[in-house]
Design brief:
176 residues; hypothetical protein tt1805; 2 domains
Length: 176
């Protein structure tokens, strides 16, 4: 770890390897529990590998419909005023999905094993794949700050799930 926390976070985010991804996307009408395994080599201890397990809970996406209150305009031309009126009239079509998440510590564990990073990663990957859990993930990252990898995973899953979530919300009449 460096003396610059911004660099450490950036470095950790850039060095996440997603070994196993969830095969299902985040749920539209309920919470999703992603069971994760994060594998990292201990800093300054080659051959010492930390394996962390836990759950990442992604909350049901919320539909946010902003209430548009047009500002008072002074010194603006007619085009700007008409565009502002257009925004006010079409605000009912503006919807944003907000995703929340929660790191669960009730099912968190970690262990340190002595072996190569590649060997431990392969064993964990094979074990996780044998469980046929559609909401499982295996990540390989730096040891500190390791939890940045979970944010990378969460963001990736939100991006992967948004299209499906929007379609399902629209089909159920909950988007517009």
């Amino acid at each position: 770890m460096s003396s610059n926390p911004d660099f450490d976070r950036w470095y950790a985010a850039r060095h996440v390897k997603i070994i196993v991804s969830p095969t299902h996307r985040l749920e539209t009408f309920g919470s999703t529990l992603v069971n994760y395994h994060v594998i990292s080599e201990l800093d300054d201890h080659p051959g010492k590998i930390r394996v962390r397990e836990g759950r990442l809970e992604a909350h049901q996406p919320e539909v946010i419909a902003p209430h548009f209150v047009p500002p008072t305009l002074e010194g603006f031309g007619e085009e700007a005023k008409e565009y502002l009126e257009f925004l006010r009239e079409t605000e009912e079509n503006l919807r944003i999905l907000r995703y929340g998440y929660h790191l669960k510590s009730d099912n968190f564990s970690e262990q340190i094993v002595t072996d190569s990073l590649a060997a431990v990663t392969e064993r964990v990957k094979n074990d996780v794949l044998s469980r046929n859990d559609p909401f499982r993930a295996v990540l390989q990252t730096v040891d500190d700050p390791w939890d940045v990898a979970l944010i990378v995973l969460w963001r990736r899953e939100v991006e992967r799930s948004t299209g499906k979530n929007i379609r399902e919300l629209h089909e159920k009449g909950k988007l517009f």
